[in-house]
Amino acid sequence: MWKVQETLVLEEEEEEEDASNSCGTGEDEDDGDPKICRACGDRATGYHFNAMTCEGCKGFFRRAVKRNLRLSCPFQNSCVINKSNRRHCQACRLKKCLDIGMRKELIMSDAAVEQRRALIKRKHKLTKLPPTPPGASLTPEQQHFLTQLVGAHTKTFDFNFTFSKNFRPIRRSSDPTQEPQATSSEAFLMLPHISDLVTYMIKGIISFAKMLPYFKSLDIEDQIALLKGSVAEVSVIRFNTVFNSDTNTWECGPFTYDTEDMFLAGFRQLFLEPLVRIHRMMRKLNLQSEEYAMMAALSIFASDRPGVCDWEKIQKLQEHIALTLKDFIDSQRPPSPQNRLLYPKIMECLTELRTVNDIHSKQLLEIWDIQPDATPLMREVFGSPE
């Protein structure tokens, strides 16, 4: 009786969700042909829990996992799942979701969902800034602010990675066909080198933040909270400038890294897949240096970081940066459908970076539990317990 009730509730909730969702919030990898849900074949709205799915399968998977349902197939566990019959067998539908790569661990808690909704609401508010009048240009104050911002970005980010000669040497697996065990030293061959690379990036981001207008006017506690919360996101933004979408590699001066190198530092597909996806998503925007710099500043001045006290002041600073970014795009880029969508797409990227940040934090702590080869600065910034 209980199983029947759960199935009916799942179906009722899915009907409500189908009626209220005419578009998705996931991120398509391309903007061309319509995407197909890999679970049921319906129109997909983006990547949800690590797989391209429709809103219906996204909601079904989330509810089934959060309720820890014990579903059973009345037939032979071989039901064909498609758009028309996907509600006929919940067990086979859940199995199909898992088979296409949907991950239970990506389902957020209710508190995390509320936090993400609040973040999206704030980002949505920033996308509703008033339109820039035709032919308008940046105000002198905005131009001065942008000059300072780009100057700080340029001075604190060595695009050639000349300091990399001082990193611990690269060590890659001698036998790439053998997947190392998670607890073996072979699983972390690249961790010392990657730790030095990330530490180098962190130092640059701290220097960047200190040079930002208004940052030093904040209390030291808020400065620390903003940096700790944003370092991973700003690192992705900076690494995006050297990301090659054709090869899915990062070309950092004398070294070129790929996801296999990250794997050999202990990271797994749960983090690497969304990481590559956000990099490809950002590279498609063809951002200019000014836009990269403002995107980094928007990430730093996020008032909802844990430990922030003067959130109202920080929120006003972020809104000022957002308005400058929008005015820059409207005044400096030629009118086109792509450029009209650039500002909201940047806001969308910043939201997606939060998800990548959360997964990164969890995986990093898991790595350190097994192999504590991290620099003191990394431990301080990412909050690893001693």
From TrEMBL:
CDD domains, sorted: NR_DBD_PXR (cd07162), NR_LBD_PXR_like (cd06934)
Nuclear receptor domain sequence ranges: 34-109
Transmembrane segments: none
GO process terms (BP): cell differentiation; negative regulation of transcription by RNA polymerase II; positive regulation of transcription by RNA polymerase II
Keyword Transcription regulation: yes
Similarity section: Belongs to the nuclear hormone receptor family. NR1 subfamily.
PANTHER family the record matches: NUCLEAR HORMONE RECEPTOR (PTHR24082), NUCLEAR RECEPTOR SUBFAMILY 1 GROUP I MEMBER 2 (PTHR24082:SF39)
Entry protein name: Nuclear receptor subfamily 1 group I member 2
